[in-house]
Amino acid sequence: MSGRALFAAWPRYRISIAMIYRICDAVMRRQTSTSSSDRRVHQPSSHLRSMMSVITAVLVAVGTILNFIVQGFKRMHRGYAKYQVIKYHHVPCSPLTAHRLSIMRKKILVLDLDETLIHSHHDGVIRPMVKPGTPSDFTIKVVIDRHPVRFSVHARPHVDYFLSVVSQWFDLVVFTASMEVYGTHVADKLDNGRGILNRRFVSYIYYQ
Fold first, then answer.
1. Are strands 147-155 and 118-122 parallel, antiparallel or unpaired?
2. pLDDT(6) > 70
3. Which of 1, 101, 111, 194 is the most exposed place for a label (fewest CB within 10 A)?
4. Strand 170-176 and strand 107-112: pairing?
5. On the CB side of 171, how many CA atoms lie within 13 Å of its CA?
6. Which of these ranges, 25-39, 40-54, 84-98, 120-134, has the smallest mean pLDDT?
7. Would the pLDDT of 3 be above 80?
8. Do the beta carbons of residue 28 and residue 52 sit within 8 Å?
9. Order of strands across the sheet with 199-202?
10. Which among 158, 154, 160 is positioned nearest to 120, based on CA atoms?
């Protein structure tokens, strides 16, 4: 039985075990009440009670083992799904829609860079947004105040596919509050020679 089928069938298994336990308990109670009214069946009732206790213990043990197995399958399934490759099925536009898009001027879509498209940190600084030991997607080296600084950049999952799709419908503009030299290098890496991030709007924030 596969893990998914076991997940689906597990509630039925639990209900069946509970029903068997209740039936055994009811039979044992009825036999106990009968034995109290008739002492001649006291010995068979004691034997039946011990047998019911054994059956109950076995059912509890089986339920515990099944629960342990199901929890293990769930952990394995979560770990497998975490690293499973997501496949996209691109549906092209109809000829009429493609013609309309070609004659209409594209609207502008402004995309925030930091903490939206990417997450980055420079050497010596580790933020809790990224699990320690996670390798970066790429690194850039820039000169800030005549000091070389290396940034480790983590791209948002599937950001390349996202940019390639929305660039068909919009003119993309990248916004960042960081320094221009940093934003330019990161945008060049994300563009990867496709020419979809040519327009950039860099904003500087000064505190006085």
1. antiparallel
2. no
3. 1
4. parallel
5. 10
6. 25-39
7. no
8. yes
9. 107-112, 170-176, 199-202
10. 154
DSSP state of 194: S
Bridge partners of 142, per DSSP, are: 149
| pTM confidence score | 0.53
- What is d(CA 172, CA 197) in angstroms, rounded to the nearest whole number? 6
Q: Spell out the residues 6+ positions from residue 80 whose beta carbon is closer than 8 angstroms to its own.
A: none
Do the bridges between strand 147-155 and strand 138-144 make them parallel or antiparallel, or are there none, so unpaired? antiparallel
Alpha carbons 180 and 202: distance in angstroms, whole number: 6
Contact 88, 160 (CB under 8 A): no
Residues forming a β-bridge with 120: 153
Confidence of residue 140 (pLDDT cuts 50, 70, 90): very high
Strand arrangement, sheet containing 138-144 = 118-122, 147-155, 138-144
Handedness of CA 143, 124, 185, 109 (dihedral sign): negative
Phi, psi (5° rounding) for residue 84? -75, 140
Q: Where are the alpha helices (DSSP H) in the chain?
A: 3-37, 42-82, 95-103, 159-166, 180-191
Q: Which residues pair with 176 in a beta bridge?
A: 202
DSSP state of 86: P
Tell me the range of 90-104, 123-137, 157-171 where mean pLDDT is highest.
157-171
Instruction: Compute CA 127 distance to the chain's CA centroid, rounded to the nearest angstrom.
Output: 21
Residue with tokens 């950049």: 153
pLDDT of residue 22: 66
